[in-house]
Amino acid sequence: MNTKEQRLQAIGDIIGAETIRSQDDLLRSLAGKGFEVTQATLSRDIKQLKIIREYDADHLYVYTLPAPAPGVTDTSAGAASLKVEFSGSLAVIKTRPGYAMGIASDIDRSASREIVGTIAGDDTILVIPREGYSREQVAAALAQFIINK
After folding, report:
1. pTM as predicted
2. Burial code of 57-70, b = ≥16 C-beta within 10 A, e = fewer?
């Protein structure tokens, strides 16, 4: 029986070696390697691995593994974050394309005392702080996710 870690490694290997344009392509490749998974499980694995879809040279979508930000060795979602700015009490975080949703999810899980919630696009996150917390407190809560440049 294959473990989740083996499956995640296989997904990374497949995406690194093959042109994968859809989840169906990935499911077929995984089945060829002995991994029988549901589409729901594959979707969770894709989210966990922070796999993104980018255009290739043929201008078609292809699944790719995210590259770490320059000079960053941390492979957590926070490694992709680039900058935070405040407007009033709201914070806006700019990330590399494709990283915002994963980082926002990490913020929602990890900074719940200071943060009510986040709204994420492709490369931008709106952070909504709780009442009574200063910018400095919110910035300190976000520090583990942010690499200011």
Report:
1. 0.47
2. eeeeebbeebeebe
